[in-house]
Design a protein that fits this description.
Chain lengths: ~425, ~425
């Protein structure tokens, strides 16, 4: 008879990996998400934009124009910093949020995720601290871990990161001699919490960062997707010397082209270009030219209005369904973006509950994915971007059934003890969780 | 009056960078390459494939099919490992070189450069050794430096890396206690040397690597671009447990889509997917679908034949021009690929000579770009892939004029003392040098 482990093929190169590879472990919710992608499951898990609302005829005509007018250049290597004409369009887009930048300040990347990867690679030695919201973007947790950063979460409330909590943590870390390399923030319609940093706190936080000589990394994929009124102006619009800004076409156009950008102070920008060339040589010329053509020939602002309308309606559907089916569960009220953050009643564990939710044909992302320290067990991120209003309503109805059953169990038997050790929360994001 | 340095704006974040950022410095030949891209200059520098020979009508119809049949999926996020249908095509392409691989063994990347970046990130702690050919690919030198690897060059001759030299170096490094993480090789039509590793040496080198427990990274962008007969079979086709294979669509299709792949032993493959998700979330769905459609609907083997014919003709033109204009300068005789490696007469310095060459309207890549240790001063890489035969002939004629003038100077005044310190050779590649 075979022993239990004998069917597992061990990795003969296990002892050869770099220290940083230890942080790369498959999430145990990964397999669940594969199940969750089946059509009968209402997935409120993934942050996939609703690209079906794009004007496909315009996309096709943009592609045709690029191939007809610029085919060989579109299929060739490009410059490491990115196509100047696309960088011009990026300037115009950023001007919508009050950011002034020269084309020379912009580096085009393979999605803003690559921008974050390059910034982290440039600044983080093992053990260096990054300050981040509590909770923060799961993909950022993955990058930071891959460079062995020490992530320090700073408390938030409904107005975003709390300045006093930021100051306290900076002072603690400085007293302990821990180098703080940057403050990572998603000020608008935060992923996952769905809250927006208030205007007054933006000023306060920039003041704190400046006073302590801490670089700010502002990640803003959702800023233009406001529902009622625009969010306060970007941090980068106030402080050009101390803020690195990450932008993305994934939410205002489409993620399938993998194009984002970084705006950085001059010295950093130079190093980012060199780091990007080492990593990928150059971003896709073809993707950049299609975007440049689309943004020059199409009414993209109106398209963003269309997206706003769709996501607003879905946010409304989710809020209404939560009020109907889960009236006593607390959650945030996002004024834009894709996500809403839910806090379960005491005694419930969102990761424990996920397999049961999937059995009931609804999926979500457990809160622990958004923390570097195992917190978030009572939290759930719900995404309202992809399913339509009816599916969202049905999804929340199913979720309510799961939560109610779980509460009854807890009331009868007491809270479940998680079999998942804390360290398992330090996992990589499944690709479905963006 | 202003002091000499006062016009330079210093980087206020200089003290905050990670240790690895010290390797990211702009090349001083970068500015020269900007000049070299002017149309009156015959550039024998960049390794840009001749994409104008692609069937643009087929490319356009592939794109149209993707958008018509799969538009929303093409514009959406994809899986971190890459599209299964494209991985099926990759299997078929690799079978041409004797490689058997399951779709599950393949990871799609943003060009094979990203594959090399991820492999290096997974394995290299600062100071770990990588063994590489002498000379080796400039872009690999850039990645390796960005993770603070110690690159050890192993001597080559016209049959590729010399096995005895490899054994000697491994033993020296082991005796010195330096961890050797992998052996990086470009066995076919090597960049920059243009030589091919012989069949018998492939076996010998794999034996040596196995005996010492050293992983082999086989980079093979040019393997299908042979001129007279195919090169010996891929190392990966012989050893599946000990070889990571890097493949690319940049030379058999086009670099503008930025799609490459990695084939790796199972345990490594799993970590590569997680590392790629941390770095870019997922490769471009759009680019992958276009490639899958092109490879399923077009006679891609015939297209590769077309490319072979074009590059063979250009190689012939370069060989003939060298025989005519520089009969006593030694160079390699590539049987495929893009490059030829030239050794200047004693006393000449290829980097010193570059500004004068550009003045004469011809550009090349100085040999030092292909070494991590400052060697290569007497070498030049010439690329015959992009300009047509007449331009190549004219370029070599101009180069001969420069070399002749330089020799006369040296004969009269003795060799020039380079004003460029050795450390300046440790520079990042300009994007034009692939």
């Amino acid at each position: 008879m075979m022993s239990p482990g004998s069917g597992i093929s061990l990795d003969p190169w296990f002892d050869n990996y770099a220290a940083r590879a230890a942080g790369l472990n498959a999430s145990e919710v990964r397999a669940l998400f594969a199940v969750a992608s089946r059509p009968e499951v209402v997935s409120l898990a993934g942050g996939m934009p609703y690209v079906a609302a794009l004007p496909f005829d315009k996309v096709r005509s943009s592609v045709d124009t690029v191939l007809a007018e610029n085919g060989p250049a579109a299929l060739q290597y490009g410059s490491g910093q990115g196509l100047p004409t696309l960088r011009e369009h990026i300037r115009t887009i950023m001007a919508e949020e009050g950011i002034r930048a020269g084309v020379d300040d912009i580096v085009v990347t393979t999605g803003s995720q690559q921008g974050l990867d390059l910034v982290t690679k440039l600044f983080i030695d093992p053990g260096d601290a990054i300050l981040a919201e509590s909770p923060s973007y799961v993909g950022a947790m993955g990058v930071f871990r891959s460079y062995q950063a020490r992530v320090e979460h700073i408390d938030m409330d409904e107005h975003g990161m709390i300045p006093a909590a930021l100051t306290d943590r900076i002072e603690e870390l400085k007293a302990a001699g821990v180098p703080i390399k940057f403050l990572y923030l998603i000020p608008n319609f935060q992923n996952p919490a769905g809250v927006t940093l208030s205007a007054s706190r933006r000023v306060e936080i920039l003041d704190i960062a400046q006073a302590h000589g801490i670089l700010v990394v502002e990640d803003n994929p959702y800023g233009l997707l406001w529902f009622d009124s625009p969010p306060p102006q970007a941090l980068r619009s106030v402080d050009e010397a101390g803020v690195i800004y990450l932008g993305s076409f994934s939410k205002t156009f489409a993620p399938g082209l993998r194009v984002g950008w970084v705006v950085a102070p001059h010295g950093i920008r130079e190093k980012l270009v060199l780091a990007s060339e080492a990593a990928i040589l150059s971003p896709s010329s073809f993707a950049q030219m299609i975007l440049a053509e689309y943004f020059s020939s199409h009414d993209w602002k109106r398209q963003i209005d269309t997206f706003r309308g769709i996501y607003r309606e879905r946010r409304d559907a989710m809020s209404a369904a939560l009020a109907t089916y889960l009236p006593d569960v607390t959650h945030t009220s996002p004024a834009g973006g894709f996500y809403l953050w839910l806090t379960l009643p005491e005694g419930l564990d969102s990761k424990e509950m996920l397999p049961r939710a999937i059995t009931e044909l609804v999926a979500y992302t457990p809160g622990t994915a958004f923390f570097a320290n195992g917190e978030g067990q009572r939290n759930i991120r719900l995404a309202f971007c992809y399913p339509d209003a009816d599916f969202i309503t049905e999804g929340i109805r199913r979720l309510a059934r799961v939560i109610t059953a779980e509460r009854e169990l807890v009331d009868t038997f007491g809270p479940a003890t998680s079999e998942i050790p804390l360290a398992a929360n330090l996992e990589s994001p499944p690709p479905e969780v963006v």
